[in-house]
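# nightly structure sweep
# worker-07 picked up a monomer target from the shared queue
# config: single-sequence mode, recycle default, output format = structure tokens
# input follows
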Amino acid sequence: MPHANAALTPRHRLKVARLVVDEGWPISEVAARFQVAWPTVKRWADRYRAGETMQDRSSRPRNSPGRTSQKVTKRCLSLRVRLREGPIQLAARLGIAPSTVHRILTSAGLNRLSYVDRATGEPIRRYERPYPGSLVHVDVKKIGNIPDGGGWRYVGRQQGEKNRAATPDKARNRYGGPKLGYAFVHTVIDDHSRVAYTEVRDDETAMTAVDVLQRAVAWFASRGVTIERVLSDNGGAYRSGLWSDTCEALRIVPKRTRPYRPQTNGKVERFHRTMADGWAYARCYLSEQERRDALSGWLHHYNQHRPHTACGNRPPMSRLINVPDQYS
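# output follows
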């Protein structure tokens, strides 16, 4: 591809060279005919005689004495992944300029710490399925139940323990105190649209996970989405025969992530973090039931009103077509 100010395209360069070399035209006449300088005509004629291409040569220098060595580049990337330090700190360790460190990190796609997985230190490889239903992610988030009167996050540990002790519950923990147990948030989220279906249950058994999946399939189907694949971690519920049989009956292909690779299921993991900030611990709930009752309102806001950066700053439901309650 010639540069923006090139007077001759590669096809005309070849024509110019052939007029001079093959047909014997004077360089001055060819230059006047094509309205270019005679050194330009001579350049392409000389390249034609040498059998070279008529395309532009690379402007990259043959030698770069000041170029950062491969050894320093590899050490820079290794320190970035392992220590998660910025250009200034890495420059001090390596003895090079911060601008050089920034250039190395940008070239490798590691210039932002959000591009590096916090658990493994590996670069995050982002992907997105081409249409709704082609893949959904499932996972369970375990959160502690809230005692009547409020939990320790908002009322303090002393009052929180009093509320916990006053809440009716026959179960006891290993220290002899009252045991409120946990709430298990089951989530099914579409990879393409980020539309989420969530239920709060009292356990994470295979039967509960299957029931949530069946209800989620019906919920997505009512919105015109047919689920084809489901991706889960290696939890016991998802490795059970009941889960496999149910997926087969629903004509869904079950997939599981590699062990110790939670980032593969990162979309539902990130949703759970958003849900924790926006719903689970967003305000002082005076009981567990009050928090559970607030889930449907927050989920409606997330799916249909909250801007999502992965959806072009539009709500996830905007990626579905002809949904009855899309704009409610």
